[in-house]
Amino acid sequence: xxxxxxxxxxxxxxxxxxxxxxxxxxxxxxxxxxxxxxxxxxxxxxxxxxxxxxxxxxxxxxxxxxxxxxxxxxxxxxxxxxxxxxxxxxxxxxxxxxxxxxxxxxxxxxxxxxxxxxxxxxxxxxxxxxxxxxxxxxxxxxxxxxxxxxxxxxxxxxxxxxxxxxxxxxxxxxxxxxxxxxxxxxxxxxxxxxxxxxxxxxxxxxxxxxxxxxxxxxxxxxxxxxxxxxxxxxxxxxxxxxxxxxxxxxxxxxxxxxxxxxxxxxxxxxxxxxxxxxxxxxxxxxxxxxxxxxxxxxxxxxxxxxxxxxxxxxxxxxxxxxxxxxxxxxxxxxxxxxxxxxxxxxxxxxxxxxxxxxxxxxxxxxxxxxxxxxxxxxxxxxxxxxxxxxxxxxxxxxxxxxxxxxxxxxxxxxxxxxxxxxxxxxxxxxxxxxxxxxxxxxxxxxxxxxxxxxxxxxxxxxxxxxxxxxxxxxxxxxxxxxxxxxxxxx
Length: 490
Hints:
By secondary structure, the protein is mainly alpha-helical. The chain has helices spanning 7-24, 27-38, 47-77, 87-92, 94-104, 113-140, 149-185, 187-195, 198-221, 235-243, 246-257, 264-275, 281-303, 309-334, 341-377, 382-411, 429-439, 441-449, 461-489. The protein is globular and about 80 Å long.
C-alpha cells in the first residue's frame, strides 16, 4: 500500500512521545513519595491520616482525569485548524503542563494539616488535567499519522519504543541530578537536601525543559495524513463512540480489568531502598524493566507479523503473569540480601517485556477501531476513540493509585521516617514480604484479568482487510468528486 510518512516523521513522532513520557512517566510514583516522605516532614501531622489522604488524592485525581479524557476527546474531534485536530493540543499544551508539574514539588510551608491536604488534592488534580490535555492527543496522533494500517502499526511501535525509553529517562535524570548535587554540595549537605526532596524539584525542572524541546521537534516536522471528516461531533456521538462500539469498548475494558497491574510502581522506590539497599538503585531496578519494555515494543511488532493483534495481546498477558510469578518465587528463595540484586535485576528485564504489549497493541487496536467506526458511521472520531480508552485508563489509574498507596502505607505496615535528616525508616520483615507481593503477585493476577475482554475482540483478519480497502475506495471517490466539482466551478 501507499506510504504516507517520511522516515523522519516516524522518528519525530516517537521523539514527541519520548518528551511527554520524560515528564509524565515518573511523576505519579515520585509524587506519592514526595507527599508521604518529604512535603510536610517535621510538621507533626498525623501520619495515618496523611497516608489515607494520599490514597484518596490519587483516587480523586484519577476521576478528574477520566472526566478530562472525555472532554478533551470531544474537543479534539471538534477541532479544525491548519495544523490538524490533534497537533494544536499536543504542541500548545506542553508549557502549561511543564509549569504545573513544577508546582507539584513546591509544597506550602504550613503547620495546618487541613491546608496541606487541600493543597495535595488541588495541585495533583491540576497536574492530571493538564497531562490529559497533552497525553491523550499525543496518543491519538497514531491513528492520524497514516491511513495505511501496516505503516501506522510500524510508526506506533517505534513511537511506543521511544516512549518507553522516555519513561525510564526521567529516572536517569534523577540519578544524574543527584550525582551532580552530591559532587557540588558534598555528601552531608546532599543528604540534608535529599531529605527535603530538593533533588526531585531540580529533576522536575530538567524534565520539563526536555518535554518542551522534544515536543517542539515533533510539532515542526509531523503532519496528520488522515483527513478529518467535516461533520461536527455531538455529545450523543461522544457517548456512542465510547460505550456503544463493542470492539473499542473491549479494548478499553482491558485497562479496567487489569487496573491492579500498575501497583508495582507505587512500591518500586521502596523495593530499591529496602530490598536492594539504596534509593539510587531504583534506576538499576527499573532500568532493566525499562529496557525490557523497549525491547518488548519491538518484539510485539515482530510478533504482529505472525499473529493478529488479539492473539498477540493474549500471548503476552500469559507470559507477563508467568514472569512475575517466577520473580516472586526466586526472590523468596534467595531472601532479601545482596545475593538477590543480580537475579532480581535480570528477571526484571524479562518482566518488562510484557509492557511492550500493553504500550503498543492497544494503540494499534484503537486505530483499527477508528477505521471500523468511520466505516459504519462515515465520521472519523479519533479523539473520542482514544478518549474512551483514556477514560477507562484514568479510572483504572485512579483505582491503581488508590489501591497502591493503601497496600504500601496501610496493608504492608510501612513506617515513614520522622527524622528530618533521614529519608527512610527501618521496616519489619513482614512489611518487606508484603512489598515484594505488591511488586509481583498482585500485578500478576491483574495481568491475567486484563486479557479477558479481548477474548471477544474481532477487528482482525478478513474483517480488518475489508474495512481498510473500503475506506481507501471512499477516500479516492471523495477526492475525485472534489476534483470534478472544482473543475466544474472553474
